[in-house]
Design a protein that fits this description.
The protein is mainly alpha-helical and about 240 residues long. The chain contains 12 helices and 2 strands. It binds a DNA duplex (21 and 21 nucleotides) through helix 3 and helix 6. GO terms for molecular function: cis-regulatory region sequence-specific DNA binding.
DNA sequence: AATCCCCGCAACCGCACAAAT
DNA sequence: GATTTGTGCGGTTGCGGGGAT
């Protein structure tokens, strides 16, 4: 089955957004709320594809975005979450209010990877570089003290945790909340429910509550939708 | 001052999935 | 059940700014 293109490419702008385009998008979303990205450009008078509008809003224009430099605490939280979840940037972003998946992904690739390498840690496996491949270790960093802890974990256990990280977040939580993992990393807050409270705040403060379009995905803030459960694809959450 | 090079970040692309038809 | 539509995600690209030469 074929997919129709998300927009009429011949009549859409590409590349950097202008100030005017930003203003149009902000004004439209303030009035109508987020959602129905496909029809939004036309309704807002923008010569942009819906995906482009969505991305621009989520990654740049949303008023609840923190922006600015990442703090040391954010750095370390990203490292922790990445060690458990891998490149699930949207999930990681869910634990960092005001940060977007794109921002975290970029930050990871430009800063954190280098940081881990300088610590002698493989950014993909989170294990010490040059470690014999037969010995399975999980390296985590004690962020309170700034020192490194290395824990030997049975190969099987390690794989199991990784598999669960791939298969479902609630299962990961179960795994983590159960000892001995919990005992090993008592400071690790992994209540991995995604809830961007800032978005709710935005809706309250901007009175963008009446979603005029009505696909189900638009009637709930993203965070609330994502709490519900995982589908077979870890990226997909269905009610 | 001009050019080159590198890096960071915004934006794009293709794909997967759920919901709707 | 098959197909279409809308959305979200991760990977990648390419532009622009700033430092080095």
């Amino acid at each position: 089955m074929g997919r129709s293109p998300c927009c009429e490419k011949a009549h859409t702008n590409k590349g950097a957004w202008t100030k005017e385009e930003d203003e149009r998008l902000i004004a439209y979303i303030r009035t109508h709320g987020e959602g129905c990205w496909r029809s939004l450009p036309k309704a807002a008078g923008l010569l942009r594809c819906g995906k482009s509008c969505r991305l621009r809003w989520i990654n740049y224009l949303r008023p609840d975005l923190k922006r600015g430099n990442f703090t040391e605490e954010e750095d370390e939280l990203i490292i922790k979450l990445h060690s458990l979840l891998g490149n699930k940037w949207s999930l990681i972003a869910g634990r960092l209010p005001g940060r977007t998946d794109n921002e975290i992904k970029n930050y990871w690739n430009t800063h954190i990877r280098r940081k881990l390498l300088s610590r002698g840690i493989d950014p993909t496996t989170h294990r010490p570089i040059n470690e014999p491949s037969t010995t399975q270790k999980v390296t985590t960093i004690s962020f309170a003290g700034g020192d490194h802890k290395t824990k030997d974990i049975e190969d099987q256990d390690y794989k199991m945790i990784n598999v669960k990280a791939e298969s479902g977040l609630s299962q990961v939580e179960d795994e983590i909340n159960s000892s001995p993992f919990r005992e090993q990393f008592p400071d690790l807050n992994l209540e991995l429910r995604i809830s961007p409270p800032s978005r709710q705040n935005y809706q309250q403060s901007h009175h963008v509550q009446d979603f005029k379009q009505s696909p189900t995905s638009m009637q709930q803030p993203i965070g609330q939708r994502q709490i519900l459960k995982w589908s077979s694809d870890p990226r997909r959450i269905s009610p």
